[in-house]
User: Fold this.
Amino acid sequence: MWGYTLRRLLYAVPVLLGVSMLVFALIQLAPGDVVDILVPPEVPKEIADDLRRRFRLDEPVYIQYVAWLSRLLVGDFGISFFTNRPVAEELFGALGNTLVLALPAAVLGFLLGVLLGALAAYNHDTWLDKLFSATAIIGVSLPHYWVGIVLVAIFAVVLNMLPAQGMGFEGIPTSWEHVQHLILPVVTLSLIPMGVISRLVRANVLEILSQEFVGTLHAKGLMNRRVLYHTLKNAAPSALALMGLQFGYLLGGSILVETVFNWPGSGGLMNLAIFRRDVPVLSATIVVLATIFVVINILVDVLQALIDPRMRR
Amino acid sequence: MADAAAALPADPAVALKRAQQGKSYWQRVWERLRDDKVTLAVIGVLVVLLAMVVFAPWFTVHDPYTGSALRRLKPIGTPGHWLGTDEVGRDLWSRMVYGGRLSLLAGVVPVFLALLIGGFLGVLAGFTGGLVNSAIMRLTDVLYAFPSILLAIAITGILGAGLQNTILALTISFIPPVIRISESVTTQVRHLDFVEAARASGARPLTIMRYHILNNVLGPILVYATSLISICIILAAGLSFLGLGVTPPSAEWGLMLNNLRQALWVSPFVAALPGVMIFITSMCFNLMSDGLRQAMDVRL
Amino acid sequence: MTEMVLAKQPVVSVEDLHVRFVMRDATVAAVNGVSFELEAGKVLGILGESGSGKSVTLRALMRLLPPVRTRIEGRIRVAGHEITAMDEAALREVRGTKVAMIFQEPMIALDPVFTIGMQIAETIVRHEGVSYAAANRRALQLLDMVQIPSAARRLKAYPHELSGGMRQRAMIALALSCRPSVLLADEPTTALDVTVQIQIILLLRQLQQELGMAVVFVTHDVGVVVEVADRIAVMYAGRFVEVGPTEAVIDSPAHPYTAGLLASTVLGSASGRRLETISGMPPDLRALPEGCSFAPRCRFSEDRCRAAMPAETTLTTERMTRCLRVAAREIDLAGPSLSQRKAFGP
Ligand SMILES: Nc1ncnc2c1ncn2[C@@H]1O[C@H](COP(=O)(O)OP(=O)(O)OP(=O)(O)O)[C@@H](O)[C@H]1O
Ligand SMILES: [Mg+2]
Assistant:
């Protein structure tokens, strides 16, 4: 098990290296360079070129990459072009705000998903199955940013019950008023994970229930509760894998929902960075989100292997 | 993508059965599809939608691009503008119909391209194994390290908005899952007895690839790709919604949602309308994909 | 005292069992009137081709069939319990304690994500309410009993970490964990290597004798059934077409199907005789023929064979057959008997 974990961790190194190269390459591909962004076009070319030299933009690309990567590795994400604050400060504050949404959304979506999926499978081909399966397919077909708009239209504009915009607090929500700000975005975010997970769990549980060992469990006279436990444990590895992916999407895709709700999270930060052409913020956000995604997937792999020993390859 | 796991790679036994049943298998698929009312209805809706979008002028009265300051944000049910008008007074129905052109284009083309490129690379990796497989799959792992939405946003965010960049970005983000599915299906099929037998009987690799593998592999990959269309439509509109996709004044569902946001407090339901189209379209593709999957599942 | 009385009564008694699967486009008549009795300490071997309804009969004894589509008729008594009349909860008490089952493929019959020890222990905990510590100790004894080497280590192993034979031993230990009086074995050796097959059969016979269990042993392998069964029932299209003591059935089959089956195996047609196969296909269980279901493939069939399914005819006290012409002594299937053939064999 430890060997497996270690191997899995080691394998992340080349992947993350690849990630950093990809992001760096993307930045190089962008039209114009940093100086073009920072310096107004009427500034004489000599001054701009001088700046390029000072920023070492005249050096070969691979040297720039190594310099950039070594700064990243020591946690130096640079200074925001726009706010002049350290990128790390802005990024980690925003990431915290994103987590405030993503965590409850994940919990809600995953729980509902497993519940609906398992119930649908256990009541295969009944009206309950059809209802839950329909709910799930609606969940995966909804453009969630649009759901956010509809929810705002209903609960904020028409009913005037819940706040439509912003976070209204900092850090951890502590009062009902804070929680009110969370409700709409969290519900919005949880829809896709709910739909995706419940579809997978339903298909999986159905598949497992058709396996021979379930016959053995009944032949042993086990109670339904215990059979359910066996079923869920068998369904867990693939469900966990999907949950890992989905949590990654909650973080990485938060930009859409955060835009709808004006949420000051990492997605919102990215959005701003894109429109301000704030390259240090943008590249750092992408690299950090991808790293988190990789780490989550390692965690999931290890969890999977803990549950199902056949996966410890 | 969101639905990657639902497109479980075909069971080798299933694939084998399929191969043995030959032509009658596809006949059975077709018969099952014919009996599946929901899937047929859904395909019907998609055909109507496509027709409306292609022949948009026949279905609309007003020009989708000319508005009037006098007719701004009319509510749903206004005479002459039954779905109302947008923030610059353009007819919403016209814009929704015309908007489908870009939305469908940006929803289907990336999946098609990803299917071509990813399918080719995946089948190649699965069929050759060894070094080629490692090279392709390790590169895929790097792309997989990005949640696909993030990858798409990163690419359009850095390269700039526009239809081409949107299609490019979405294609790149859909290639890795297509590679993974194709690779795993191909690898499974490759180890089946009949492929081994074909090899032992001296068939050339390319012949094996054409006749055996593509016959048994294409089905699952295609089903998976149809499920990707739904996600792609949502994401393409999402990029436009962020201002990273199609640029104004083009009509596109996501962009319309974005433009109408400022009207949310004035006429909330008009503001939400374009999303209905995104929802219906993506739902139809999801249902169609489910129907195809079921029709092609021999175990049922 | 009571045990003495019980021992004389059959522990398994089945009367006119019918099992049908009602599905959307067709109804499969898998079992069509099976009756038998089995005393404690005896082994009944059910022999038949693939699809003849052996597994369905066996599963019906525990009502282990999908409840929604399965229709069971007839009467089943196992270890004093009226299986057909019980509710689910009562059934769960009987399963695993009075009657247990081992399956053909131990690989897929064991839960892949639980250790062997856990799968045995949870059964003991469920039925005897002991602690997991105590149940684990019992599990260890059980693994010793089924002769698994270094049992303590195997207890913590997962099914995929064991060899096929070892897995089947674990499956047997699991089945015996609550000392059932009836053991149902569904082709327990079919998936194993020949050498391992013999070991498992020897083990089963030894345990059966030590524990005095009644065993229903399903197989399509004549060689296996001869080794374990006291009596043989030959099954065709959901019916027993012949029942009798093992020796008698093998030596002098009393049904054309049995004769054909024996002629098609190496054991049955030893020395001199050619291996023959039965021509034709088993009948479609969705639409069984009116008359004897074997008639379409039978060399001896006449018009009246196709009129109605022959009833069970008792030949001697121990023997039954479902063949009009054998019952009327019109045909003689007995070639040189197996014991004679053995004497001349290689
Ligand atoms: N759950 C079920 N639903 C529908 N039909 C079934 C079901 N289980 C078994 N059958 C059908 O009942 C018939 C008898 O099957 P059964 O499994 O008893 O055969 P068998 O004698 O055990 O054969 P084998 O040697 O292959 O195990 C088969 O035609 C099978 O298709
Ligand atoms: Mg069977």
Observations:
- Residues 194-211 of chain C form the longest helix (18 residues).
- The first strand of chain C starts at residue 10 and ends at 22.
- Chain C is about 35% helix and 20% strand.
- The pocket of adenosine-5'-triphosphate (ligand 1) is lined by residues C 21, 28, 30, 48, 50-56, 66, 220, 285 (CB under 6 Å).
